[in-house]
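are you around this afternoon, could really use another pair of eyes. what follows is a protein written twice so to speak, once as letters and once as structure tokens for the fold. i want to understand how the tokens follow from the sequence so walk me through it. anything you notice is useful, everything is just below.
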Amino acid sequence: MIPYLNTTTIFRNNKLKSAIIIGLFYFIIFQVSCTTVAQPKGGAVGIINENTLYTNTSTGEIRALDILSGEEKYKPRWPSPEEVSIDKKLDKEDQKYRSLAIYGAPVIWKEGLYIVTYDGYLFKLSLELVEEWREPIGQITSSNNSFIATPQIKNGVLLIGSSDNTLIAFDVENRSKKWTFKTDGPIWSSVFISEDQIYFTSLDKYIYSLDFEDGSLIWKFKTNGAIVSSPIVHENKLYVGSFDRILYAIDSKSGNELWKFENSKNWYWATPAVHEKYLFAASLDGKLYALDINSGKLLWSSSTEGKIVGTPAIVDDLIVIASTDKKIRLLRLIDGQQMDICNIGDQIKSDVISTNEWIFFTTEDSVRALKIKPNGNMDEEWDGGHFFKEENPISNSRVRSC
């Protein structure tokens, strides 16, 4: 998940369009104050490992929550006061651009938790949130060089793109860069890895496929708009949406277009979701489109009263979507019939992630857990949610939303 840019104007001049998009992005994520230094805020739900949800807060902390109770499992949280003090000892030039804010979710490999901060530091933590090492993987010389996406890892190689137009492959065992690949625009999407090929998108309007081992270009496909959505590959077909309001299906081996869906009235931000014969595409026009995965034919659609920013979650024969209208909806996969709806009371711009009958998502200040009952209803758990800014994140007095 990447942070959401709330603008709908389409600019005809490509250079002007890119400059304004990037400028608005940085204006939004930096909370400007007359008396304090602006700091970006993070925004991913996190990652589930067995019975633990590792989530990052809006202020750059990592918390490990028990998925049944929402209680924190390990303290001190990361970063501890000792770790924060290390950052304060950096020289003034590095300190100028330092930020522990985390936009992408952590990734787990061999009992290690890896996170990339907004300013380009890669941290390895134990699953108990003890820091083991840190390495700068980006050049911290400008606020324009930032890391937005969730990293991906395979065979000890971590892959992540940056806003300085670079995809980085970093060997976490040798703690060194393996290769880099340059595009003509910022990379906000996460990489999708399939066999020996990797796939990602860029604001330069291209979808890229590279060789996993050496980063050489296999193919690239141009759309008519900037792309921030992360692609998904299923049975040798790649699916991704663009700011040109088109959802593309592409042969993942050759890069040839198979079909495209052009009914959306706004941009695509979320990664599509796949289930058997269905492809689900969530759009900023507030609709979830259910398509035939082989032809792109529209099977059904469901509307919300806001924008669908995050990727939906599929749970058995149901799909869960979250919207900026502050509501979570539970729909049937087969026809989109609404089974339940829950008004959370806060805008939801994150992905929805799931494990068994549990679903998780974040608002600006909280991470929430809902449980899908056998009768198709959703109940909020954790006594109303885990709120990042509260001293005691679980409040027994808080009214559950559903």
Observations:
- The two ends are 25 Å apart (CA to CA).
- The chain has one domain: 14-315.
- The first helix runs from residue 14 to 29.
- Helices lie at 14-29, 81-88, 92-96.
